[in-house]
Design brief:
Structural class of chain A: alpha/beta
Number of strands of chain A: 7
Radius of gyration of chain A: 38 Å
CATH class of the largest domain in chain B: Alpha Beta
Largest sheet of chain A: 3 strands, mixed
Radius of gyration of chain B: 29 Å
Oligomer: heterodimer
Number of helices of chain B: 5
Structural class of chain B: alpha+beta
Number of domains of chain B: 2
Strand order of the largest sheet of chain B: 3-4-5
CATH superfamily of the largest domain in chain B: Cation efflux protein, cytoplasmic domain
Number of helices of chain A: 8
Distance between the termini of chain A: 59 Å
Strand order of the largest sheet of chain A: 3-4-5
Order of helices and strands of chain B: HHHEEHEEHE
Largest sheet of chain B: 3 strands, mixed
Helix content of chain A: 55-70%
Largest interface: A-B, 89 and 89 residues
Shape of chain A: elongated
Strand content of chain B: 15-25%
Chain lengths: ~280, ~170
């Protein structure tokens, strides 16, 4: 009998016995169903215990109970097992076996590399004769955004992992599941948000959401540097445009080209600034 | 590929079974002790005899009724534990990728947090199938419009996932 079924049956029997005993006790007081004697007499039991054969029978039954109990306990000790799966390609020249746990670990490492998941672990279990490879991971804390924008990617990565495992074990009854748990609770500040507070914050009432409790606050120096760069770019862009216009008016090809080059350079810098902005947000 | 079974919580029937197994061993030890004591191989007196003497003359007192009530309750609990199936801890849309309720609410909160007009998000779960997103919007934003935008963003991004019912509550900054 499967261990789970045996446990269920044993717990059910114990529960029903307790229930019957309890109901008997309640009926003894209520005296509604069974006509029980008002006083309990254990004289017959005491006589039986006092006989010469009782200790021997008690010891024999006791030994059986000890052995049964120990076997039952042993069934609950997790045995790691070999984790080896025999491949159908085995023949008289040799056996072909694959270590399922190594396979699960490799699949877990691959999944961790392709998705914003942390602590990805691979494990193998047997469920009703089917080998179940489980890849279990947590959503990364600051990769919430990435995961949110790429839930399709997550599903695709999970499907790929399942397909790879199926391809590695073509003849076997192997099921794969990718299990996602919430991000780990951490006290580390989040690094994926920027809060900029106005300099004269005393003029406005505070709201809890405005407090820069979590995350990274942009330092004033950092902010002015970014603004200075942007101002310089704008100036270069304007100068370039002016040179081009003057070049057009005076038909000066060299000035025209210089103006265009200035504008191009400023737009390249602008793109760079935008990228920087994107990454600091 | 064979469909994987749903991940489930550890069954409490296993824990109860271990306790019962220990009880069985203890009962066995009492049985063996009877022989040791009766043959004089160990000092002491028979516990079984003492227990029977103690129970002799017992009447249906209030204590007995309370104990019987306790036995009925414990028996019912054991029967329920034995019969109930294991609780599923994760949900899946495709049978391969399984999400815990916490993972889904973290995803929903991350999506809401990136919606324009949202300053802060707090995700709460009510039950395993409901997520309440408490959103703080900017002072100049229309809370209704932000709520609609958040709901739309969550619907779009979490499409195809076993998304639970999501409720959005918006509070504007004063």
């Amino acid at each position: 009998m499967a261990p789970l079924r045996r446990d269920r049956a044993a717990v059910l029997v114990a529960g029903l016995l307790l229930l019957a005993l309890g109901l008997l006790g309640l009926d003894w007081r209520a005296d509604t169903v069974l006509d029980l004697r008002p006083t309990l007499s254990t004289a017959a039991g005491q006589d039986a215990v006092a006989t010469a054969w009782f200790p021997w029978v008690g010891a024999a039954v006791g030994l059986v109970l000890i052995v049964l109990g120990l076997l039952w306990l042993l069934a609950h000790v997790r045995r790691p097992g070999t984790g080896a799966i025999r491949l159908a390609a085995s023949d008289h020249t040799g056996r072909l076996e694959v270590d399922a746990r190594s396979l699960a670990r490799a699949a877990a490492a691959d999944l961790a590399a392709r998705t914003p998941l942390e602590d990805v672990r691979g494990s193998v279990a047997t469920h009703r004769g089917t080998t179940v490879v489980e890849l279990r991971g947590r959503l990364a804390h600051d990769a919430g955004a990435a995961a949110a924008t790429a839930t399709d990617d997550l599903a695709a990565a999970a499907a790929t992992a399942a397909a790879q495992l199926a391809a590695a074990l073509p003849d076997e009854a192997v099921a794969c599941r990718v299990v996602l748990d919430p991000p780990r609770r951490t006290k580390e500040p989040r690094r994926d948000r920027v809060r900029v507070r106005p300099a004269t914050s005393t003029t406005r009432p505070h709201h809890p959401s405005e407090q820069p409790l979590r995350g990274h606050r942009m330092e004033p120096k950092e902010r002015t540097m970014g603004l200075a760069d942007k101002a310089k770019n704008a100036a270069q862009d304007a100068l370039g445009k002016a040179k081009e216009v003057v070049g057009d008016l005076t038909d000066d090809k060299e000035l025209q080209a210089e103006g265009k080059a200035d504008q191009a350079e400023s737009s390249v810098k602008k793109v760079g600034e935008n990228i920087k902005d994107t990454f600091t947000k | 590929m064979i469909a994987a079974p749903a991940p489930t919580a550890r069954r409490s029937v296993g824990t109860v079974a271990v306790v019962l197994a220990l009880g069985l061993v203890a009962l066995g030890v009492v049985g063996v002790r009877e022989l040791l004591v009766a043959r004089g191989w160990a000092a002491g007196s028979s516990w079984t005899l003492e227990a029977l003497r103690g129970l002799d003359g017992l009447t249906a007192t209030t204590g007995v009724t309370v104990a019987a009530g306790g036995a009925v309750l414990l028996g019912l609990v054991l029967v329920v534990i034995a019969v109930l199936p294991a609780r599923a801890t994760h949900r899946s849309a495709d049978g391969v990728l399984w999400f815990s309720a916490g993972a889904l609410s973290a995803l929903a909160a991350a999506v809401a947090d990136r919606t324009p007009g949202v300053l802060a998000v707090d995700a709460r779960r009510s039950g395993r199938r409901r997520i309440v997103l408490e959103v703080v919007s900017g002072a100049r934003q229309d809370p209704e419009a932000v709520a609609v935008a958040v709901r739309q963003a969550v619907d779009v991004r979490l499409a195809g996932l076993p998304a639970p019912a999501v409720r959005v509550r918006v509070k504007a900054v004063a």
